[in-house]
TrEMBL record, chain A:
This is Molybdopterin-dependent oxidoreductase. The keyword RNA-binding does not apply. It comes from the Bacteria. Keywords: Molybdenum, Oxidoreductase. Residues 1-10, 18-27, 812-823 have a biased composition (Basic and acidic residues).
From TrEMBL, chain B:
Keywords: 2Fe-2S, Iron, Iron-sulfur, Metal-binding, Oxidoreductase. PROSITE patterns: 2FE2S_FER_2. It comes from the Bacteria. It comes from Nocardioides bigeumensis. This is (2Fe-2S)-binding protein.
Length: 823, 163
């Protein structure tokens, strides 16, 4: 049961810190330039690497002439794939979604054949980065071009006899087939075929095909890796979200003992899933540094980043939604083609599968089926990008709910309300088999409608439509949910993922009363140092300023599973609480000993142990000092009160929210202008509202940007034509608007802090809200879909009745000659 | 190699540089001023923005030799010697105008120039004034708020000094 009005905004028994707009601890170094980005690293004798990359999407490597490069000024070595073959390891597919999934071997450096434009074929090692790049230009590679599989649908149809294979030796482009069938798994009594048949006979069937265009994460800090092989250990500094997973996979694929590898993620400038990867560049830098015995650095250029860092989304979604004539949804069938690009990334195969539990969203269906085919093509590999599987699913269902509303002639909010789970039905097990912890869709929607001025905007829309105004108004809705807190390890095990989903924390009481907290999560902009300090300050009753959060170094944080999937607070935060509670328990006998009281008579509050019913007490800082001196402690007790905890979540959490977007469409030019955006998110209890607002704003713009601006475009030869920030359109301050955001609070019931996760919410929710608004503005012209991004050209074309816009490849207009497209 | 003499963050410096060396490379590689960062290779992102003779420039778009004889100010000496933050730095912290912080040096230096030019900008003028600086984390909402707040801080400081 959840009821918004009687819920506190913060955890009920929390102290003064939780729920406070603390300014971030991280900011002092970031606003004064005292930062530690990986590319800032300079070690004595450090060498610099430059990569030689294939300009071709698919080709055999006939020969590589390194002589001219090798003779250049200050060049140490030039290595090709053949030189490194036995030492370079492999880039792993850690989530084989089926036991027989087909995944091409992914060597960091190609040896005989390249499978996408941008793949590395050689590396030059020089005294300076400039000299390395100059010499890389002199490496002469002779290629024999092979036909390239570029179009996702065509690639899915191809076999050894017909069409083009991305990897001819595999005999197919289909990497796997993965299905969730609600009746088959027992989460519904009815089957999808029966429901479709029934709807065709006497209800409504809406069939659509939606395109999730290819996006690029485009974190602001280009990736950089420094490897120092001197000393007993090999140390890697790298711009990553996942130092622990990187260390494990380096050890597992190169044979270097894990205990001899230290991975450090210093300040990391954004990730959005794009740094949830173990990269060829990291593996090559590791191999070269080991081979040469000197520290080596590789920093990518932005153009390299766009062509070689993994991309996101890229799906065709074939959807069949069934409903009664009144608009009650009875079932949904999803047939998904997911473009994996040339290789399966660390969790690449699993990303589209994560959408399987989200297509049904907040609605109650009788039956549901999700069929997913990941497909290999000769393009940059695809893996997690903010939301990872969930935005794609949310887009599809929220677009379909608008289509259903149009079909039955009702307001899209009314149709949603007819179908959503009511607030008194939680916990609710969905048709996909997930149990939603808590939520209140009615309350979030009511609040959002009021903030938005929904009825007045609908009236204005009608007035403009009646008058035939050249600028039409559209209202877009997205009542989304998502699953956060990746993840219960047993669930990941069932899904064949290579790791667990637990998180680790250590709490150390220093003799001076300061607290050192170590988390296995690895922040790159999220503000963990601040929010986690607030949690610990409340739990231990110590000042916020006295808490230091350490992370991102496998030697300091020996155990962890890093940051992605909105897991850091929901899973990592819970580990912190458990470790802090262990400290409190561990210190209790010592406190009792020092107070000459019985431990059973002590209570702990506000950082002090007091003897119940007296004013006798001792602070936890004093107890910490007593363990340091260790002059006087109970028999049989170890002189230490530090504690560790590993927390494995019992279930996911399910944030939700109602997003409302008003957009104006100029019907003469197709230009879309955002007018108003309101969102009311329910993310459970909030630790730091200021940080939450930032996460929401940033998420919103990434989702809006998918709707209106961004697309990774390839030409017919397989060259990425949106390969720089000139062509890949990131929005600027002048393109965006200010947002109105608020919250309702249904605390999660799956963790003690009652938090749900917010890192991806804005991105997941906003894309369909915007496209729904654009389609709503021009629906009276007969438009029911517009391909993303909704460029002026596509919107105008749709209004003219020529369909939703052209598909990606045919639509591409190269901005420069693809000839010799060395990035 | 060409000899250049310039004043960077209130220190006189002199170096022999390759004619092709960019100002941002000079700052980072020769002077170790890693507070200024590189975010792209097409002069789109603005992460490397510094002040050159008091006006903002993308330091990837200026050759080191072009800065000969000039005064360059970077994020590293924006705060006072006693650690007192510049009002723009203060405003970015106060309004949560940064997340990962990579675009922040450029955003802050651009804002310094923007407010020198226009001490009392509207939201629209702020948005247009920051058009050359990309941020992927904040959605610009809190950056715009920070700039407007910085304008207020500067104004009240100046009034305070005048009084």
């Amino acid at each position: 049961m959840t009821a918004v009005d009687d819920r506190p905004d913060v955890a009920p028994d929390s102290g003064p810190e939780i729920g406070r707009d603390r300014r971030r601890k991280e900011d002092q170094r970031l606003i004064t330039g005292r930062t530690r980005w990986t590319d800032n690293m300079a070690l004595p004798g450090m060498l610099h690497l430059a990569m030689v990359r294939s300009p071709h999407a698919h080709a055999k490597i006939l020969s590589i002439d390194i002589e001219a490069a090798d003779r250049s000024l200050n060049i140490y070595e030039v290595f090709t794939g053949k030189h490194l073959a036995d030492t370079q390891g492999v880039n792993a597919n850690a989530w084989p979604i089926t036991p027989d999934q087909i995944a091409p071997a992914h060597l960091p450096m190609a040896v005989d054949r390249v499978a996408f434009a941008g793949e590395i074929v050689a590396v030059v090692v020089a005294r300076t980065a400039a000299e390395a790049r100059d010499a890389a230009e002199l490496v002469d590679v002779e290629y024999e071009l092979l036909p390239a599989a570029l179009d996702l649908k065509e690639a899915a149809e191809a076999d050894a006899d017909n069409g083009v294979l991305a990897h001819p030796d595999l005999g197919t482009n289909k990497s796997a087939f993965w299905q969730l069938d609600s009746q088959g798994q027992g989460s519904s009594t009815r089957g999808i075929d029966e429901v479709i048949e029934e709807a065709r006979a006497g209800g409504i069937v809406i069939e659509r095909e939606y395109r999730q265009q290819r996006l690029i994460p485009a974190f602001m800090e280009p990736r950089s890796t420094v490897v120092d092989p001197t000393g007993e250990q090999i140390t890697m500094w790298t711009s990553t979200q996942i130092p622990h997973i990187t260390r494990f996979l380096l050890a597992a694929t190169t044979g270097v003992p894990e205990s001899k590898i230290r991975v450090i993620a210093p300040d990391v400038g954004g990730g959005f899933g794009g740094k949830l990867q173990t990269t060829p560049e990291e593996w090559i830098t590791f191999a070269v540094a080991r081979r040469i015995g000197k520290p080596c650095k590789y920093t990518e250029t932005r153009s390299e980043s766009l062509v070689s860092g993994h991309h996101g989304r890229d799906q065709w979604q074939k959807l069949t939604l069934c409903a009664t004539k009144e608009g009650r949804v009875t079932g949904l069938k999803v047939d998904l083609l997911a473009d994996m690009g040339a290789y399966i990334g660390v969790i690449g195969g699993g990303v589209p599968v994560l959408g399987a539990w989200m297509f049904n969203a907040i609605y109650k269906f009788d039956a549901y089926q999700f069929n997913c085919t990941p497909v290999l093509t000769n393009k940059t590999w695809v893996d997690a990008y903010r939301g990872a599987g969930r935005p794609e699913a949310t887009y599809a269902i929220e677009r379909l709910m608008d289509e259903l509303a149009a079909e039955v002639g009702k307001d899209p909010l009314e149709v949603r309300e007819m179908n959503w789970i009511k607030h008194d039905e939680f916990p609710f097990t969905t048709v996909a088999g997930m149990t939603y912890d808590s939520g209140n869709y009615e309350a979030a929607t009511a609040k959002a409608k009021e903030m938005f001025g929904y009825d007045a905007l609908r009236a204005e829309q009608k007035e403009r439509r009646d008058r035939g105004d050249k600028v039409q108004l559209g209202i877009g809705i997205s009542t989304f949910t998502e699953m956060c807190g990746l993840a219960p390890s047993r669930v990941l095990g069932q899904l064949n993922y290579g790791a667990g989903g637990w998180e680790h924390a250590t709490v150390r009481m220093l003799p001076t009363g300061k607290v050192e907290v170590i988390t296995g999560t690895s922040a790159h902009g999220q503000g963990h140092e601040t929010a986690f300090s607030q949690i610990i300050a409340d739990r231990l009753g110590v000042p916020f300023e006295d808490v230091e959060i350490l992370h991102g170094d496998t030697q300091v944080s020996h155990k962890g599973l890093d940051t992605y999937g909105s897991r850091s607070l929901v899973v990592g935060g819970e580990a912190l609480v458990l470790a802090a509670d262990k400290v409190i328990e561990k210190a209790k006998p010592l406190a009792a000993h020092l107070l000459e009281a019985s431990a059973d008579d002590l209570e702990f509050a506000n950082g002090r142990y007091t003897v119940r019913g007296t004013d006798q007490g001792i602070g936890i800082a004093e107890v910490a000092l007593a363990t340091f001196a260790a002059h006087n402690y109970p028999e049989g007790m170890e002189p230490g009160i530090d504690a560790e905890s590993t927390y494995d979540p019992v279930d996911f959490s399910f944030p939700h929210g109602t997003h409302l977007c008003a957009a104006e469409v100029d019907t003469e030019t197709g230009q879309v202008t955002l007018r108003k955006y309101v969102c009311v998110d329910d993310i459970g209890n909030i630790i730091n509202p200021l940080i939450v607002s930032g996460q929401v704003h940033g998420g919103l713009v990434q989702g809006i940007s998918q709707a209106l601006w961004e697309e990774a475009v390839y030409d017919e030869s397989g060259t990425l034509v949106s390969g720089s920030f000139v062509d890949y359109l990131l929005p600027t301050a002048a393109d965006t608007i200010s947002f109105e955001i608020d919250h309702t609070t249904s605390p999660s019931t799956t963790n003690t802090l009652g938090t749900k996760g917010v890192g991806e919410a804005g991105t997941i929710a906003s894309t369909p809200a915007v496209v729904n608004a654009v389609v709503d503005a021009v629906r009276h012209f007969g438009v029911n879909d517009i391909l993303m991004p909704c460029t002026p050209e596509r919107v105008w074309t749709a209004i003219q009745g020529a369909g939703s816009g052209a598909p990606t490849v045919e639509d591409a207009q190269p901005h420069f000659e693809a000839e010799g497209g060395q990035q | 190699m060409t000899r250049i003499n310039l004043r960077v963050d209130q220190e006189n410096v002199s170096d022999d540089v390759e004619p092709r060396m960019l100002l941002v490379q000079y700052l980072r590689e020769k002077l170790g001023k890693t507070g200024t960062v590189i975010g792209c290779d097409t002069s789109n992102c603005g992460a490397c923005t510094v002040l050159l003779d008091g006006r903002s420039v993308k330091s990837c778009n200026v050759l080191a030799v072009q800065a000969d004889g000039a005064v360059v100010d970077t994020i590293e000496r924006l705060a006072d010697d006693d650690g007192t933050l510049h009002p723009v730095q203060e405003a970015f912290r106060e309004c949560h105008g940064l997340q990962c912080g990579y675009c922040t040096p450029g955003m802050i230096m651009q804002t310094v120039d923007l407010l020198n030019e226009n001490p009392d900008p509207t939201e629209e003028e702020v948005r247009l004034g920051l058009e050359g600086n990309l941020c992927r984390c904040t959605g610009y909402h809190n950056i715009v708020k920070s700039v407007l707040h910085a304008a207020q801080l500067k104004k009240s400081q100046e009034t305070g000094v005048g009084a």
